[in-house]
Design brief:
The protein has 381 residues and is an alpha/beta fold. It folds into three domains: 94 residues, CBS-domain, CATH 3.10.580; 133 residues, Roll (CBS-domain), CATH 3.10.580; 108 residues, Double Stranded RNA Binding Domain (2-Layer Sandwich), CATH 3.30.160. Helices cover 38% and strands 25% of the residues. The strands form five sheets. Strands 7-13-12-11 form a four-stranded mixed sheet. The N and C termini lie far apart (64 Å). About 2% of the residues have low confidence.
């Protein structure tokens, strides 16, 4: 299947000289998945809510300062390849070209709607993200913004301060609403003080509740249908027997990632923000991860995801990069995270930690097996 009938020429665009304040208002009023940026009518890039949240740039700054590249796809591109490009580009839309000219856009929602009926074979437990970041009700909205930026996520489940049970959720879109609402009710002179007051508000005052959830046993089709019907970007995942416990998150990106799984002989590796890689190629990244995974012969890796995130800090012009490598295996998820100046250094630090965690898992399982054998022998005495 290609995207010729999925892409649309109905999209929002702004000129690169437009103010960011205008873009913030567009996201609040129209809630687009992304905005195309043009210069004199020619495609320049895209801008997303994530970029706005991760930026400290003032409203009067021009859009050109914050726009980013996005994968450019042909109108007849394969759906699976397009899904992969959206995941690796870290974007919810991609510009679609026909005969070399910008024709329109393709969005993650459009792809998911097109393949919805084929998602019954998967359960939420097959593809959701575990070990998510949460925040307590009494924390501040300023802390929310910091966590969203630090971890590069779009939502935080909110938990009760005492028992840790799920009580709400706060999302990146809530922050955009938060900022725009403040800008419309204050003047330039008192806006700074008002913003400081708002950032000190407890999460409880701004979170959404009740929370849309999915059980690990639910079908991915049903979960995606709920997300599409209610314009959710993700659902909190709970165990089968207790919807108060945060087990993880299922996002549209998780589903797109599953769509682009391959059955190739080599390990399927997806790289988010692949443009940050310097000397390393995709093949080299794949080979290094395969070598680590091969140190535990009983562990079968279904999928690997490498996520790169660039910090503002630099050393002699080289940015500080955070790399996270996550393996989905028949033994559960195994991950390694590291930081370094340059993506290559960060990747190898993360790979080293991943190897330690793989070997630790191997050792724990062997210890448990030995313990079981010992107990069986004792019972036989």
């Amino acid at each position: 299947m290609d995207i010729s009938n999925i892409a649309t020429n109905d999209y929002i665009q702004v000129e690169s000289e437009e103010r960011l304040g205008k873009v913030r208002s567009i996201f609040e009023e129209e809630n687009p998945k992304g905005i195309i940026v043009t210069k004199a009518g020619q495609y320049e890039g895209v801008i997303s809510e994530r970029q706005l949240i991760q930026s400290h740039i003032e409203d009067h700054t021009k859009v050109a300062a914050l726009m980013a590249d996005a994968p450019q796809v042909d109108r007849t591109e394969d759906v699976r390849d397009t899904a992969r490009m959206l995941v690796e580009g870290g974007t919810k839309i991609a510009p679609v070209f026909e005969a070399g000219d910008l024709w329109g856009v393709v969005s993650e929602d459009a792809i998911l709607e097109a393949v919805l009926e084929n998602l019954d074979a998967l359960t939420v437990g097959d593809i959701f993200t575990e070990n998510v970041v949460t925040i307590e009700e009494s924390e501040t909205m300023g802390r929310v913004i910091n966590l969203l930026r630090e971890h590069g996520v779009s939502r935080l489940p909110v938990v009760d301060d005492d028992d840790g049970f799920l009580t709400g959720i706060v999302t990146r879109h809530d922050i955009v609403d938060f900022v725009v609402r403040d800008n419309t009710r204050t003047t330039r002179g008192d806006r700074s003080g008002e913003m400081e007051r708002l950032l000190d508000l407890p999460v409880y005052d701004e979170m959404s509740s009740p929370v849309a959830t999915a059980s690990v046993a639910d079908s991915v089709r049903d979960a995606v249908a709920e997300m599409l019907d209610n314009d959710y970007s993700g659902l909190v995942v709970t165990p089968e027997n207790d919807d108060r416990v945060v087990g993880g998150i299922l996002t549209k990106t998780d589903v797109l990632r599953a769509l682009s799984y391959t059955e190739e002989e080599h390990l399927d590796v997806q790289i988010t923000n692949i443009e940050l890689l310097d000397a390393l190629t995709r093949q080299e990244v794949q080979e290094r991860i395969e070598q680590v995974a091969g140190k535990y012969s009983e562990m079968n890796v279904h999928h690997a995801h490498v996520r790169l995130h660039k910090h503002k800090e630099k050393l002699r012009g080289t940015p500080l990069i955070q790399a996270q490598i996550r393996l989905r295996t028949n033994k559960g998820q195994v991950a390694g995270t590291g930081e370094g100046y340059g993506a290559d250094n960060a990747f190898y630090v993360a790979l080293d930690k991943l190897e330690r965690n793989v070997l630790e898992l191997k050792g724990i399982e062997h210890d448990e097996e030995y313990r079981g054998q010992l107990l069986r022998k004792l019972n036989e005495l």
